[in-house]
């Protein structure tokens, strides 16, 4: 109930301002929806919630320019800004801009973000191979170690510039440059419940050689990107019908002690939106994959999911609100992965308020993800290091407390759930979703609750 009240509060503080006065005669589009014109501003100076990030407080602003309305619900210019911080020590300072009207016949996308995360999830490599023991972070358990056993610090600075140009028909090409800077380390927390004996899985991975000395602190990674896409969607945010797919490669460079970690990743993403009843009921599904096709990535780049269009502040690999809902964030940490989602989306109720057009929608979803490439781990050598580790011996642990040698690392992981949306003027969407995994190894509590912005795809 408390989470629901938080969501309702966020809706009540949602405001909108127009640069132009509304026309006396309301225009409608081909689906009979009222058309907006001019500049529209939507802001949420409130609170959101994500099971992975905790309670987030700050302000989010969306600014849309619809011009004379001839392109509505598509916009001419879009500016997104956010400043927020969460109870699980996840911060966001972000400014994003998108427009088709700056460079002739091209779409321009610019992003500047600083995304600190002092308590980022770390459950180990190769998904099912890494055994998740909830008791290690459960204070009521006799096996309790520390509440941050599955956490580490992962701060990301990102700056990107991308352009999209037409190739004819509905085909487009993309080109972009950017830079990622990671700061990696042990969890940042004010209260240490283990004193000098405190240990996290991340630190154990460094001691056991699964994370090398060169990559353990992060580093700078400029990148270049190129690819193609095909897009027949009627609109990007609240899509009713159409197909979208993209295929692109990203080359990440590295320097100094990280010079051996040059790598290239290949991404493919396919989405299909099928109207069942006008725009009131839509079936949407997505199939996507990311794989390392050349070189070797530092472990933290492997959990960064490349996207041509950055909807979410930070994309994680498999697990969490941007890939497989209901599963813990970064649960499947591998160099290559594939995932899929199916959603049934409805627009249950439409209404107008303060001269803005709203609808309330419900979506049912099923998500799945699996490892396609895994880290090459010498199990016999690793077992020797673990069983001879003084911390492991002192705490009465064994190799099997950290690794499941019988697991099939390529087995899929599933999550399912339901969500509610409140949309304003087609492009500003508040989202509440609840998801649960099929396996307790993917989330011991069996549920995850998310309050945020937009649809997952």
Any overview of this molecule?
The protein has 457 residues and is mainly beta. It has a single domain (101-453), classed as Beta Barrel (Porin). Helix content is 8%, strand content 46%. The protein contains 5 helices and 19 strands. It has a 19-stranded antiparallel β-sheet that branches. It is globular and about 75 Å long.
Structural descriptors:
457 residues; mainly beta; Porin; 19 strands; globular
Distance between the termini: 27 Å
Number of strands: 19
CATH architecture: Beta Barrel
**Strand share of the residues?**
over 45%
Helix tally equals 5
Shape: globular
Order of helices and strands: HEEEEEEEEEEHEEEEHEEHHEEE
Radius of gyration: 23 Å
The biggest beta sheet is recorded as: 19 strands, antiparallel
CATH level 1 class label: Mainly Beta
Structural class based on helices, strands and sheet pairing:
mainly beta
Helix content: under 10%
Summed up, the domain count is: 1
CATH topology: Porin
Residue runs with pLDDT of under 50 for 5 or more positions: 1-24
Average pLDDT confidence is 88
Task: Give a brief outline of the structure.
This protein is mainly beta.
Task: Spell out the blueprint of helices and strands.
Elements: H1 2-12, E1 15-18, E2 39-44, E3 47-50, E4 54-65, E5 77-86, E6 91-99, E7 106-115, E8 120-121, E9 151-168, E10 171-185, H2 201-207, E11 218-231, E12 242-252, E13 263-277, E14 281-295, H3 299-302, E15 336-353, E16 356-373, H4 379-387, H5 390-394, E17 413-424, E18 428-437, E19 448-453
Antiparallel strand pairs: 1-2, 2-4, 3-4, 4-5, 5-6, 6-7, 7-9, 8-9, 9-10, 10-11, 11-12, 12-13, 13-14, 14-15, 15-16, 16-17, 17-18, 18-19
């Amino acid at each position: 109930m408390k989470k629901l009240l938080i969501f309702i509060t966020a809706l009540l503080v949602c405001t909108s301002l127009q640069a132009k006065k509304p026309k006396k005669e309301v225009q409608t589009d081909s689906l009979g929806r009222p058309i907006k014109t001019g500049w529209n501003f939507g802001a949420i100076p409130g609170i959101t919630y994500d099971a992975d990030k905790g309670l987030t407080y700050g302000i989010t602003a969306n600014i849309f320019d619809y011009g004379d309305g001839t392109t509505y619900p598509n916009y001419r210019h879009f500016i997104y800004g956010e400043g927020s911080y969460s109870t699980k020590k996840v911060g966001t300072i972000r400014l994003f801009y998108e427009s088709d009207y700056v460079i002739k016949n091209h779409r321009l996308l610019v992003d500047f973000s600083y995304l600190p995360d002092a308590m980022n999830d770390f459950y180990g490599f190769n998904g099912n191979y890494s055994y998740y023991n909830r008791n290690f972070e459960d204070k009521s358990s006799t096996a309790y170690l520390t509440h941050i056993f599955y956490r580490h610090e992962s701060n990301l600075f990102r700056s990107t510039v991308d352009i999209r140009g037409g190739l004819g028909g509905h085909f487009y090409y993309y080109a972009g440059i950017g830079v990622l800077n990671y700061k990696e380390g042990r969890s940042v927390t004010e209260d240490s419940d283990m004193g000098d004996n405190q240990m996290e899985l991340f630190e154990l991975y460094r001691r056991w050689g699964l994370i090398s000395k060169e990559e353990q602190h992060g580093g700078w990674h400029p990148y270049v990107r190129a690819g193609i896409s095909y897009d027949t969607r009627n609109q990007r945010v609240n899509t009713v019908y159409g197909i979208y797919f993209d295929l692109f490669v990203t080359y990440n460079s590295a320097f100094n002690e990280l010079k051996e970690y040059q790598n290239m990743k290949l991404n493919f993403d396919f989405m299909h939106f099928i109207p069942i009843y006008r725009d009131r009921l839509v079936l949407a599904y997505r199939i996507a994959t990311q794989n390392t096709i050349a070189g070797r990535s530092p472990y933290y780049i492997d959990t960064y999911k490349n996207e041509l269009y950055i909807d979410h502040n930070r994309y994680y690999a498999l697990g969490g609100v941007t890939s497989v809902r209901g599963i813990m964030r970064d649960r499947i940490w591998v160099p290559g992965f594939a995932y899929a989602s199916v959603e049934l989306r409805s627009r249950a109720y439409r209404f107008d308020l303060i001269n803005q057009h709203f609808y309330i929608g419900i979506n049912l979803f099923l998500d799945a993800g699996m490892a396609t490439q895994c880290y090459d781990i010498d199990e016999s050598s690793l077992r020797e290091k673990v069983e001879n580790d003084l911390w492991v011996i002192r705490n009465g642990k064994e190799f099997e407390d950290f690794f499941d040698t019988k697991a099939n690392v390529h087995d899929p992981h599933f999550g399912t759930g339901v969500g509610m949306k409140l949309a304003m003027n087609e492009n500003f969407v508040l989202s509440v979703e609840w998801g649960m995994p099929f396996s307790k190894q993917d989330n011991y509590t069996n549920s995850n609750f998310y309050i945020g912005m937009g649809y997952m795809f």
